[in-house]
Amino acid sequence: FFVSTPVAPIASTSDADVAVSSSTINNKDCSSGHDNQMSSNKIDESELFATVLNESMTLTSDNLEVCSRRMVNVEHLFKQIFNSSVGHEPFNCNVTNMYLTKEKRVGLISIFHLKCKMCGLEQTLETDVLDRSTKDMDVNLATTLAAVSKGIGYSQCEEMMAVLNVPFMAHKTYQRCHKSVAEVICKTALQTIEKAGKEEAALAIASGDVDEEGILLLTVIM
Questions:
Q1: For residue range 152-205, what is the model confidence (pLDDT) as tens digits?
Q2: Is 62 exposed, middle or buried (0-12, 13-18, 19+ CB in 10 A)?
Q3: At 109, is the secondary structure helix, strand, or coil?
Q4: Could you write out the three-class secondary structure of 122-181?
Q5: How many CB atoms lie within 10 A of CB 3?
Q6: Which residues contact 22 (CB under 8 A, 6 or more apart)?
Q7: Which end of the chain is more exposed for a tag (fewer CB within 10 A), N or C?
Q8: Mutator-like transposase domain location, by residue (predicted)?
Q9: Residues 97-118 as b or e (16 or more Cβ within 10 Å = b)
């Protein structure tokens, strides 16, 4: 129902309204005849493009409804938005002309799939970094580490996220993150113990706390 003459924006996106609007436009074109064809030749191309774009946005803006809250890495999200603001060929459309088709969740990370209304280009926006090669922990690992540090488990985290209205990760995902976090905690604990032992040994030697056989005498408080 995109026609060669500018029309008023459609107020509703329901199937009935679209059908009525399409019928009205087509009837108006047929009744206008030669006069309508003459007036269309005088329309500026940019004005026509803007009219068609506005109608397209009206019809596809409510394709998918996203509810509740998300935990977002603001820096990462803005970088993606700024990179996608470059115009798409051949209509020079950008992220403002795209609509949401679906959301894929990887634990607490959401991947939003977008599609351009004009050129059909598809791309994604992530709420956090999914690249495992980076040094920074993603939100799934960070949340699991916070739970371990506070002495709580999956059920307590799930209840807290439910109050915040944030979709939480599946139990299998949490266990996988917990295993990764536990390995890091164990490795870090051993390094800390070794470092502390060397410091205690240096202090014992400096203070002369060594027996006849050269064994360090360390004070242990229990």
A1: 999 999 999 999 999 999 999 999 999 999 998 999 999 999 998 889 888 888
A2: exposed
A3: strand
A4: EEEEECCCCCCCCCCCCHHHHHHHHHHHHCCCHHHHHHHHHHHCCCCCCHHHHHHHHHHH
A5: 17
A6: 1
A7: C
A8: 69-220
A9: bbbbeebeebbbbbebebbbbb
Q: Helix or strand or coil: residue 113?
A: strand
Find the length of the chain.
222
Distance CA 109, CA 26 (A): 46
DSSP assignment, residue 99? E
pLDDT digits (tens, 9 = 90+) for 18-37: 333 444 444 444 444 444 44
Q: Are 149 and 141 in contact (CB under 8 A)?
A: no
